[in-house]
What we know:
Bound molecules: zinc ion
Low-confidence stretches: none
Order of helices and strands: EEHHEEHHHH
Helix content: 40-55%
Strand order of the largest sheet: 1-2
Structural class: mainly alpha
Mean pLDDT: 94
Number of strands: 4
Amino acid sequence: MAKLNKRKCIHCKTVFQKQQPLQSACSYKCAIAHAKELEEKKKQREWMKRKKQLRFETMTHKDYLKLLQIAFNTFIRHRDERKGCVSCGTSLLGKKFDAGHYRSVGSSPHLRVDENNCHGQCVHCNRDQHGNLIEYRKRLIKRIGIQEVERIENYQSDLKLSIPEIQELTKHYRKESKLLIDKRKLIENE
Ligand SMILES: [Zn+2]
Ligand SMILES: [Zn+2]
């Protein structure tokens, strides 16, 4: 029975004999020290929260776009991980590969989150071959059809997404990625 009344001090970690059922510190000194520590942690947590909030409040349109692009590109990589590179056809499975835009985000920002304008692409084609666009076009036609390729090639717009629209899209693509990950897990477990 005596053993039941022993516990580790919440502060100094030495084992002590409890005098009261809910006693968690070996001494008054340790109890005070622990309370101070909790207070410090709480302040720290509040500061971290505030810091996060501040960062959020000072985010620019460009910052939001950056987050959207990350979410979208991640989605494309999950979508295309079992397809070959859109330009050279090499297998992408288990490799680090890029989400390569057919019309680049730099020159065609209005197509930055067009799902037919972006496909899994090996690092060699995307970075060393600058997109390997002639081969990209050939395989893109097979993948989405000439009509859709021409739509992308001819589509012009200077429409700008608002911050709430960008946030909505970011949320959407994060969710889509999660769905694809869950689906893959299901297949792998079968
Ligand atoms: Zn103690
Ligand atoms: Zn390639």
